[in-house]
Amino acid sequence: MFIGLDLGTSGLRALLVDDDQQTIAVSEASYDTTHAHSGWSEQDPEDWVSASQKVLRDLRHRMPSQMGQLRGLGISGHMHGATLLDRDACVLRPCIMWNDTRSAVQAAKLDSFESVRDLSGNIVFPGFTAPKLAWVAENEPEIFAKVAKVLLPKDYLTFWLTGAFTSDMSDSAGTAWLDVGKRDWSKTLLAAGDMRQDQMPRLFEGTDLVGVIRSDLASELGLPSDVAVAAGAGDNAAAACGIGALSEGDGFVSLGTSGVLLAARDNFAPQPASAVHTFCHAVPGKWYQMGVILAATDSLNWLSRNLQQSPEQLTTLLGDTLGAPGTVHFLPYLSGERTPHNDSAIRGALIGLDISSNHADLTRAVIEGVSFALRDSLEALKSTGASLDSVFAIGGGSQSRYWLELVATVLETPLHLPEKGEFGAALGAARLAICGVTGQSPEVVMTKPQISTTIMPRTELTGRYQEAYAVYRNLYPSLKGLSS
Predict the structure, then answer these.
(1) Which residue in 6, 52, 362, 390 has the most C-beta neighbors within 10 A?
(2) Is residue 80 part of an annotated ligand binding site?
(3) Where is substrate bound in this sequence (predicted)?
(4) Active site residue 235
């Protein structure tokens, strides 16, 4: 038996699978995010520990026989978070999250240093880890002076489980401290932010085993004493492992809280100016690139809160069949934007409202705006040489047939829907553990799921949506002018 833990933004998901990767049980626990100021987003790492204890105990209670056969565990987690520990491994402050934008000034300063983009393969985004530490140095110097280790969120859970300070390549690539081509910490990048290599965890490939669960913790949780823990992966790399996107041409589109268009790459091919993320994959010798939009289903959730109707109720208003583009335009920059603008200050807008505009018009505008933002990411990926002839569709938004037809048509790319089952980051984390424990290659373990349906672009509408996308692209400069 193997477990994949997925440390998400709003909760933890635990997936128990057997050695044939059949789902045995699932357990979930939620936790809160605090927003003390505009642009701030923080979590208490002890909430992650409490959630982990809850789900592991729940699985042990419900599946005692299977949990007694547990051999390995892998963890996936939201990236970029700064979890700061002192010399006694005590948490110094709440974790500064991936969607926290307070360090925009520090990010711009780091990004201006010579060789930073060449070595990291990326723009230094405000959400990355390095500018967060620069912000702490400037605004909380007494805390910065005590920092002995910086751990990414999922690596804090690995430390709790094993007592070891470790990280994997895919997660560490989002810090702006890693030489992404060489897959190692960069002295140059660390020095740019006044950091030291001894403050960094030891690096592993995601399939490597980093230790076993501490004996006292295994006893406390009722687990076998020899459960091995894999290095794990950042959430999108883990999702790629779960869906079998390992090699050139493989990819997925994720309609989750944020939106992601990911392409696996066989080689390191950065183009930072495109605002595409170029990261190490969770498996050896592979990389991946992705365009990221900060508010995908979050945009629909925002509309849902304000119209006081559930997202499902709102999307039902549109039916199941895609029609022509609407006349109301939405720019989904509710929390700023990454690809292609790298603009933490920009904010969203509804444009073209009419006195007759109704809930359906607003819903259509929101999901069209998110879909056009994903088209921005596709164009940015193309500029790096990435190729995606078709992609798997995952995430909560993929439950809407209308939205899937819209994305396929806007991207002019077929979307594959996997057969019912677990194919997300939790499975990817479990697969990393399977590779580590059994020694099997990722290509053998991380196969693609069976396809239940393929959503084809509506070719009779692609011209209309191309025109609407051109309007969308022209709106950003005008909105930027109003925001500056």
Answers:
(1) 6
(2) yes
(3) 79-80
(4) yes
For the chain, the domain total comes to 2
Residue with tokens 């909560």: 396
Task: State the catalytic residue, choosing from 235, 250, 343, 361.
Answer: 235
Residue bearing tokens 């949780």: 221
pLDDT of 232 > 90? The answer is yes
266-313 per-position pLDDT tens digit: 999 999 999 999 999 999 999 999 999 999 999 999 999 999 999 999
Handedness of CA 314, 317, 318, 324 (dihedral sign): negative
Distance CA 220, CA 198 (A): 31
pLDDT in tens, 354-398: 999 999 999 999 999 999 999 999 999 999 999 898 899 998 888
Query: Which tokens sit at 239?
Result: 């999702």
What gap in Å lies between CA 119 and CA 270, rounded to an integer? 10
398 shares its domain with 277:
yes
SS3 content of the chain, % helix, strand, coil (to 5): 40, 20, 40
* Predicted model pTM: 0.92
H or E element at residue 144: helix 141-144
